[in-house]
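Reminder to self: tokens first, then the designed residues, so the page reads top to bottom the way the pipeline ran.
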């Protein structure tokens, strides 16, 4: 599969080959190898090789910039995950506050149950049933309403925070 990528070594080799294969000036009738009135060699091949080299270098620059930007986003996501996980280990998420906020936000949808991780179940007091679900992680919260559910998992909240941070980074 040809993705258009050309290595720097290939470009340098091509440039060197273009320089060494340029036609030498033809010898003149007096044997002075083009020193007396002989026409200068055409450089059409050199111009074409230089144009290709310039284009390939521009493509390499774009590819390097894209790789840098992609790497920056991956690094930011990994760093945020690590920092937030460490913070949650030191001070667990205030699931009770999250539950109260979620119940208030979704009041018009008629909440019927709050579902949290087993380690958080004892800390949540709500006017609706509170159930522990072992598939949820610490800090995760699901508000079940009459006709569906609203999830507020750590991954979801983290993704939202990272999206807002990346918007500011791109601006």
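Designed residues (171 positions):
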């Amino acid at each position: 599969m040809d993705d258009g990528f050309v290595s720097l070594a290939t470009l340098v080799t091509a440039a060197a080959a273009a320089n060494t294969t340029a036609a030498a000036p033809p010898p003149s009738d007096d044997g002075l190898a083009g020193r007396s009135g002989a026409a200068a060699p055409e450089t059409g091949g050199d111009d074409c090789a230089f144009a290709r080299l310039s284009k390939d270098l521009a493509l390499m620059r774009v590819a390097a910039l894209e790789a840098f930007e992609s790497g920056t986003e991956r690094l930011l996501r990994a760093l945020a995950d690590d920092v937030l996980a460490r913070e949650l280990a030191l001070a667990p998420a205030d699931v009770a506050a999250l539950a109260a906020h979620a119940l208030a936000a979704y009041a018009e949808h008629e909440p019927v149950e709050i579902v949290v991780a087993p380690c958080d179940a004892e800390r949540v007091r709500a006017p609706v049933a509170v159930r522990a679900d072992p598939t949820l992680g610490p800090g995760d919260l699901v508000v079940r309403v009459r006709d569906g559910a609203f999830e507020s998992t750590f991954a979801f909240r983290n993704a939202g925070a990272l999206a807002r941070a990346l918007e500011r980074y791109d601006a």
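The chain has two domains: 8-90, 95-170.
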